[in-house]
Structure formats: structure tokens, C-alpha cells
Design goal:
By secondary structure, the chain is α/β, with parallel strands linked by helices. The protein folds into 2 domains: 57 residues, Arc Repressor Mutant, subunit A, CATH 1.10.10.10; 183 residues, 3-Layer(aba) Sandwich (Rossmann fold). 38% of the residues lie in helices and 20% in strands. Helix 2 crosses helix 3, helix 6 packs parallel to helix 7 and helix 8 runs parallel beside helix 9. It is globular and about 60 Å long.
Length: 307
């Protein structure tokens, strides 16, 4: 298959499924890891895909573009893990919390499954599924009704109605974007009303958002920056953005983003190397131990004993 044909098929798959991984494409096309990475680089330069660690996702085109859950899940995974770890420290046993839909709150959910007697309110199908699969009998999960969005959020009048009489200790809010002008935003109009209702149901609102969300503006505003009590973000957020947030939010928690370890070359195969040297030595008559010439010593027979 020609490179152009392969790239065309990759672009079609990204458009259809929302995301691809390098390992999957290597298996599918039977080419090397480096070849696939070059293909993704070419497609990214043409604006057809967005490169992410380990693969590529569909490109966002505007304030109403809403990527699917699978697309967003593979973006900024290290940052989301760090943010989730820091945010989980704000929750204690016996508390009631609300988690909005999103991949950062979904990552946080995995960190909360070990907290005893926790009550969770959410409009996210994947978040509810995390707690369901953990199987803890001492945790209560309340999933709202509503219309399902591409990001697996339940929104609309049914979701709003189910939230109106709920009150929790802390609301954890994932957002599509945040900016000084537009505040906290979403690309989905129906979701804006639902999440705004959810955000108002807690004694404390905690926004969990990585650095790429800064200065991104969705079509609908969920809440103003001033409405947030805490923002948990990662260490890659620019200092200028951090200063603006500090003017509006009481507390900013910065989660240290782990640096990818330097990959060292694999150690040499000592056994293979030794075997190769032995074979070379045998071919030249050299001793594999000393490198000098080697002639086996044959003991002389006792002439008298043979008479």
C-alpha cells in the first residue's frame, strides 16, 4: 500500500471513531511504529488530525465542536492523572460530592473509589460506571436522567429536574474551556444549563482543568471564574494565565506534571555477543578466552604400559 493511501485510510478512521492509537495502526497496516508516526505527522501538518501522545484525535474546529469521550480521554493523560491525584485530596470519608461529565472528572472518579461511605451525584455515564465497577456497598451513586451527548453527559430538562433538590459538599467541574472574558464554557447549549444547575448545588465548587483549557471558549457559559472556589490545574499552565485566575479564584492548586523518563537504549545481549565471539574465535583458531592460538594438548601414552 502506498503512503498516500495509508494516510487517507488513517484520516478516515480518525474522522469516524474520533481517535486512533499508534499501536493499533501498526497492527492494522503491518508497518513500523516510525512509519505510522510519520503518517500522523503528515496528517497533522495538513490539519486533518491532532497529534497526541501515543496517537491522534479528530480536530476541533469551533466553539460548538464537541469531541467524543474516546477522543478526549487520550488527550493530556499525564496532566489529568496529576490533577485527579491532587483533587482527590479534597474529599474525605462520608462526604457527598458531585462530578460533572468529562474525562478529567472520570479520571478523578478512579481516585475516589477507595473513599468510604461516599455519596456521588453525576450526570456522566462513564463516571457512574467507574463506581459501579468498583462494587463498594458503602458508596451511593446517583445518576441523573437526560439526553446523552457525544461526551456521554446526560443533559436537558430531566437532568435539571433531578438536580434541583440535591445538595452536596463539593462539586467537581470539568470544563471545555476557561477564559477571563467568557468564564467557564461548554460547546453544548443543553449541557450548559445542566452543568450550571449542578455547579450551584455544592458548598464548594472545584474546577479541574489542564493547561490546554485556558483561553478556549465554548458557545455557552457555565459559570464565571469568580464562581469557582478552587481551580486544580497542572504545572504547564502559563504564568500569565495563573495571575489572571488568581484575581478571580480564592485557591489555585497546581499539580506537578510528571516528566516522561528518558528512555535508555536496551542493554546489549551479553549471551549473544559471547556466542558470536566464540564462533569467530573457532573459525580463526583463536581461544575464546584469551584470543591467542589454541591447540589442544594430547597427553602422551606411557610406552612401558603399552608394551
Amino acid at each position: 500500500m502506498l503512503a498516500q493511501q495509508r494516510q487517507s485510510r488513517i484520516a478516515e478512521r480518525v474522522h469516524r471513531t474520533g481517535a486512533v492509537r499508534v499501536a493499533e495502526l501498526v497492527d492494522e497496516f503491518g508497518v513500523s511504529d516510525m512509519t505510522i508516526r510519520r503518517d500522523l505527522e503528515t496528517l497533522a501538518e495538513r490539519g486533518l488530525v491532532a497529534k497526541v501522545h501515543g496517537g491522534a484525535t479528530a480536530v476541533d474546529f469551533g466553539s460548538t465542536t464537541e469531541p467524543g469521550f474516546a477522543v478526549k480521554k487520550v488527550r493530556q493523560e499525564a496532566e489529568k492523572e496529576a490533577i485527579a491525584a491532587a483533587a482527590a485530596g479534597l474529599v474525605g470519608p462520608g462526604q457527598a460530592v458531585a462530578l460533572s461529565a468529562g474525562t478529567t472528572t472520570w479520571t478523578l472518579a478512579h481516585r475516589l473509589t477507595d473513599i468510604a461511605e461516599l455519596t456521588v451525584v453525576t450526570n456522566s455515564v462513564p463516571v457512574a460506571d467507574v463506581f459501579y465497577r468498583s462494587g463498594r456497598a458503602d458508596q451511593t451513586v446517583i445518576l441523573t436522567g437526560g439526553v446523552r451527548t457525544p461526551s456521554d453527559a446526560l443533559v436537558g430538562p430531566f437532568a435539571v429536574a433531578s438536580l434541583e433538590k440535591v445538595n452536596v459538599d463539593t462539586v467537581f467541574l470539568g470544563v471545555h474551556g476557561m477564559s477571563a472574558r467568557a468564564g467557564l464554557t461548554t460547546p453544548n447549549l443543553l449541557e450548559a444549563e445542566t452543568v450550571s444547575t449542578l455547579a450551584a448545588k455544592g458548598r464548594r465548587m472545584v474546577v479541574v482543568a489542564d493547561h490546554t483549557k485556558w483561553d478556549v471558549v465554548g458557545i455557552a457559559t457555565i459559570a464565571a471564574l469568580d464562581d469557582a472556589d478552587v481551580i486544580v490545574t497542572d504545572s504547564l499552565l502559563e504564568e500569565s494565565a495563573r495571575k489572571i485566575l488568581a484575581e478571580h479564584v480564592e485557591q489555585i492548586i497546581t499539580a506537578p506534571t510528571p516528566v516522561a523518563p528518558t528512555r535508555l537504549p536496551p542493554p546489549p545481549d551479553i549471551e549473544s555477543a559471547s556466542r558470536s565471539r566464540s564462533q569467530a574465535g573457532a573459525a580463526s583458531g583463536a581461544s575464546p578466552r584469551t584470543g591467542g592460538s589454541f591447540a589442544p594438548t594430547v597427553p602422551k601414552k606411557d610406552e612401558k604400559s603399552n608394551k
